[in-house]
Each structure stands twice: as C-alpha cells, then as structure tokens.
Design goal:
about 110 residues, four-stranded mixed sheet, alpha+beta, 3 helices, Beta Polymerase, domain 2
C-alpha cells in the first residue's frame, strides 16, 4: 500500500468504529498485558477499500513466552468479540525475530 503523503503529513484514517477500537485495545491489554501497544495497518487504513481483515501489530516491551499461543489467543478472542471479523495479529517483542512485516506495520500503522 502506498500513500501520497508521508505519515507526518497525512491525516490518519481507518475503517474501524470507536467501539471496535475500544474492544481491540481492551482485549490486547487483557491478553498481552497493560504495557502492550497495538497498531492497525493494512487495508483497513484505505478508506477506498471495502471489507478486508483487520491487521494488527501488537508491540510488547518485554520478552514473551510461547508467542504462537499468545498470537492465536489474541486472534481468537478478537474474532469472537468483533462478530467473526477475520483478524491477523503480528507480534513484536525483544525475543521475536523481526521480519519485513514488522517494518511495514510500524511505518504505515496507526497506533490505536
């Protein structure tokens, strides 16, 4: 996804309701801890798109145990709480190897 303006110049937009944002923030805090931050990235930042899954980067300041289980729990709980909407969670923590998706999500994502 490309934007015509830099992140500093563009107005953040997203296709999530305030209620959905609160559900996401509350669920991430419950499962990943109160220090976790969550960013929305991907197609939900494009107001011209329709539908699509919800792509989230969950950033944690401390190492996590069993990242695969944590990611699966977040996805499952969020999907239930958001009425079956497909959720993709990418985790970032000091002990998780960074990949290009982390850079993309940090560069284009909007902090919720």
């Amino acid at each position: 996804m490309q934007f015509s303006k830099s992140l500093e110049q563009r107005t953040p937009t997203m296709r999530l309701t305030p209620e959905q944002i609160q559900i996401i923030r509350r669920t991430v805090a419950e499962i990943a801890g109160p220090k976790a931050r969550v960013r929305l990235f991907g197609s939900r930042l494009d107001d011209q798109s329709k539908g699509g899954d919800i792509d989230l980067l969950v950033e944690m300041p401390d190492p996590v145990e069993n990242a695969a289980v944590l990611g699966a729990r977040l996805e499952a709980r969020l999907e239930r709480r958001l009425g079956g909407r497909k959720i993709d969670v990418v985790l970032a923590a000091p002990n998780i190897r960074r990949q290009s998706i982390h850079d993309l999500a940090e560069r284009e994502g909007i902090l919720l």
